[in-house]
Amino acid sequence: MNTRxxxxxxxxxxxxxxxxxxxxxxxxxxxxxxxxxxFFMGYPKAALTSGIVEDDYHNKVDKDKFVDMNAKAYxxxxxxxxxxxxxxxxxxxxxxxxxxxxxxxxxxx
Length: 109
Description:
Blueprint: H1 2-26, H2 30-40, H3 44-49, E1 52-54, H4 56-61, H5 63-69, E2 71-76, E3 91-97, E4 100-107
Antiparallel strand pairs: 1-2, 2-3, 3-4
């Protein structure tokens, strides 16, 4: 019975390590952070196929705010269309926390 418990504990440990590794990989650079966020918003095709470029307009206009937030804006070249409003989900803000990047939708302005 004790070996079964050890086996289950090892299995749980490996599963947790795998989840942490995946989280670190998908948040290791700005592009991957945007792709991950778009994927979990429910647009896997756009997450995998759209190009991602720096949003020069927002990075220039909001420069001071972004410096304080340790962030940069990025734009999808082929954005998904939001189902409810039919608007393009184009701009995303990516913040850097240590060596991790986390993205959030920034709007379509």
